[in-house]
Write a sequence for this structure.
């Protein structure tokens, strides 16, 4: 939703209920600890962003030749400065130390100001979609809002998939875009796009800055909106003349969000908590359904009592009417329930041992399994080996497709914020830039992009930033030369008729196309290929031990299917439990 001060020349093109957009969401507060500034943040930095944190000695030597010496910002408190400098200092005051920005004509003032920042590092990805997915990977893996910056027009529209992804998956993002000067808005100027209108339904909130004095307040509000209630993306669109205008900033202005703040969830009522505790105490087979995924149902569950706790009132009862609903922060609700149960002593009467034994037996009777065919590589096996060799402690990002589902099934995940995937939107090309963002935000932690050959190619250009910064991103591509998930549907419902799902070279189907080893070689990244199951363990071990980035091309059969599978529009009773592309359906 556009925001402006009185007397501004440009107003929103349609009436609004400021500060809410058509897709206003309420989110749970995200922690936003300020990062301590390391010497590498404070010193003059090489153009290659955080290369100093990850580079090898040889990389450091090559980077030195491109080092630019910038004068750090040194304004007196009452000294006028450009809007772009005010913006950068406002970001610093929000604790931002890393962001993802690609320059252009309408945003170059911001980039010039970034070169004067004593604490912010820009990580230069090669496409704006890569930027926003990297910011998302950073936010998902750290809990802090991710920040990205793009120029006007095509730069801004390249962020659109990232906005939709972040809104659906409740990821706190602040995206800043350059815009044509105010006097040119609405004239179809070169690289002009009404990005506020374009993104109105896929952002939690958005702003068009029409007064340079508003920048400190708007940035403060943007971070507050992105990280409170139900987290989501916020857009701040800044015309170029605002970036160039001089002003004396007034810091720590009051927030102007009365409607939003008044709608944030209050502490849960004792009455509702008592109802929930009573239902739990009466249950012999309680199930906690937390977060995304698919809730399996059965005839028995028709008799179950459903309790729905959600911070977003729009989500309650959307798919299934609960017996008890509570609009609250689930953390506060659970804390309140625990306190009440301890006070009453009812928790001592809970006995779910029979239910636990039944679940353990079901897991043994119906384990996740797969078939092997000679020395062909089952994709599930490759992920299981990765899980074993990393002890389930790596941060895993994925693209979208079969590999995404196998990564969810076969990797064990020991803690929160390890699993980075485009769950709601299902955006292919997410995995590689998200892994880069996670590596930036989590130095020293193993980050692996488990990807498919289709998804990987959608943002393969981000190998450049990963190599230049020497990020220790490991890429394991499960390469079946097809769009695997669509092929699975073709096998099941279209008699294996291929509708443009083969990604290899039709003129020579025996070759691996494209050759990812040659692509990574062009970027200076080591790589290897495995075609036999017996080679997998040693190949993954080598990938993990190699410093810096590494790609492992794992050739897997395209006949493999992800199971269990529920057809579109189906229910639990329609679940498919066996079969693959080797047998007709």
């Amino acid at each position: 939703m556009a925001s402006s001060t009185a007397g501004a020349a440009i107003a929103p093109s349609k009436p609004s209920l400021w500060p809410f957009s058509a897709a206003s969401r309420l989110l749970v507060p995200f922690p936003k600890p300020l990062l301590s500034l390391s010497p590498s943040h404070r010193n003059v930095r090489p153009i290659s962003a955080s290369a100093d944190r990850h580079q090898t000695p040889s990389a450091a030597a090559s980077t030195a030749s491109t080092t630019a010496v910038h004068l750090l910002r040194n304004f007196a408190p009452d000294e006028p400065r450009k809007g772009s400098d005010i913006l950068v200092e406002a970001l610093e005051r929000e604790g931002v130390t890393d962001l993802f920005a690609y320059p252009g004509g309408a945003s170059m003032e911001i980039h010039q100001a970034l070169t004067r920042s004593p604490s912010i590092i820009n990580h230069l990805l090669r496409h704006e979609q890569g930027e926003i997915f990297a910011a998302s990977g950073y936010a998902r893996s750290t809990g802090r809002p991710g920040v990205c910056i793009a120029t006007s027009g095509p730069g801004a529209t390249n962020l659109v998939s990232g906005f939709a992804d972040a809104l659906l998956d409740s990821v706190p993002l602040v995206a800043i875009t350059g815009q044509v000067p105010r006097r040119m808005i609405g004239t179809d100027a070169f690289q002009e796009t009404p990005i506020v209108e374009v993104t109105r339904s896929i952002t939690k909130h958005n702003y068009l800055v029409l007064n340079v004095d508003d920048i400190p307040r708007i940035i403060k509000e943007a971070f507050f909106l992105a990280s409170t209630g139900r987290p989501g993306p916020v857009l701040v669109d800044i015309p170029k003349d605002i970036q160039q205008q001089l002003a004396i900033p007034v810091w720590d202005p009051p927030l102007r969000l009365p409607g939003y703040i008044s709608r944030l969830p209050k502490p849960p009522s004792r009455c509702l908590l008592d109802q929930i505790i009573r239902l739990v105490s009466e249950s012999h087979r309680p199930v906690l359904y937390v977060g995304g995924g698919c809730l399996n149902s059965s005839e028995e569950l028709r008799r179950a009592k459903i309790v729905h706790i959600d911070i977003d009132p729009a989500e309650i009862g959307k798919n299934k009417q609960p017996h008890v609903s509570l609009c609250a922060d689930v953390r506060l609700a659970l804390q309140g329930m625990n306190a009440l149960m301890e006070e009453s002593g009812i928790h001592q009467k809970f006995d779910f041992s029979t239910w636990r034994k039944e679940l353990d037996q079901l897991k043994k009777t119906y384990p996740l399994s797969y078939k092997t065919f000679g020395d062909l590589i089952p994709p599930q096996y490759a992920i299981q080996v990765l899980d074993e060799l990393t002890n389930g402690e790596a941060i895993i990002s994925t693209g979208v497709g079969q590999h995404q589902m196998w990564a969810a099934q076969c990797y064990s995940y020991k803690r929160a914020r390890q699993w980075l995937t485009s769950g709601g939107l299902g955006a292919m090309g997410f995995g590689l830039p998200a892994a880069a963002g996670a590596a930036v935000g989590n130095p020293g932690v193993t980050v692996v992009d488990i990807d498919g050959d289709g998804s990987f190619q959608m943002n393969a250009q981000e190998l450049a930033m990963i190599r230049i910064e020497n990020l220790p991103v490991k890429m394991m591509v499960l390469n079946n030369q097809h769009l695997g998930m669509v092929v699975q549907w073709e096998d099941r419902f279209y008699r294996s008729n291929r509708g443009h799902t083969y990604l290899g070279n039709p003129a020579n189907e025996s070759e691996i196309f494209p050759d990812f080893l040659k692509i990574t070689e062009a970027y200076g990244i080591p790589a290897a290929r495995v075609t036999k199951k017996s080679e997998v363990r040693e190949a993954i071990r080598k990938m993990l031990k190699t410093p810096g980035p590494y790609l492992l091309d794992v050739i897997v059969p395209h006949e493999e299917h992800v199971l269990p599978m529920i057809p579109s529009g189906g229910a639990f009773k329609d679940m498919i439990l066996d079969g693959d592309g080797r047998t007709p359906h």
Q: What stands out?
A: Residues 1-51, 56-66, 292-304 have pLDDT under 50 and may be disordered. The chain is about 35% helix and 10% strand. Residues 270-350 form a domain with the Rossmann fold fold (CATH 3.40.50.1220). The radius of gyration is 26 Å.
